[in-house]
Amino acid sequence: MEREFDFLVDTFPGINVNTTATSEHVPEIERMIRVIKEHAGSIRSKLPYKRLPNQVIIEILKFVLLWLNALPPKKGVSSTYIPRTIMTGLLLDNLK
User: Fold this and answer.
1) How many CA atoms, within 13 angstroms, populate the side-chain half-sphere of residue 46?
2) Which residue in 70, 65, 63 sits closest to 91, CA to CA?
3) pTM over 0.90
């Protein structure tokens, strides 16, 4: 087991920091990766092209993550603040 991030456990008191080994699986993270891939795949399937440039794929993933972070999750840290606001302090402007 790697101990690369174990110093974070004492850095943030009151927060449960779960460090994992290289080969250890974290079901919550694996589920989120699958959700991102499903959303990106559904956008990709609607496009009329057989192949896409790498930059377009990157922008599709950014778009998916923007909208996944635009709504507060049901079992999230906050029921009113979105993940983007919690992490960056930036609010989405719905009037733009």
Assistant:
1) 6
2) 70
3) no
Q: DSSP label at 96?
A: -
Q: How big, in percent rounded to 5, are the helix, strand and coil portions of the chain?
A: 50, 0, 50
**Two tokens, residue 2:** 């790697």
Q: Helices 27-46 and 54-68 meet at what angle, rounded to 10?
A: 120
Burial label for 40, CB within 10 Å (0-12, 13-18, 19+), is middle
Residue 89 half-sphere exposure toward CB, CA atoms < 13 A: 0
Task: Give yes or no for residue 96 having a pLDDT over 70.
Answer: no
Nearby residues of 13 by Cβ (< 8 Å), 6 or more positions away:
none
Tell me how far apart the alpha carbons of residues 25 and 2 are, in angstroms, rounded to a whole number.
14
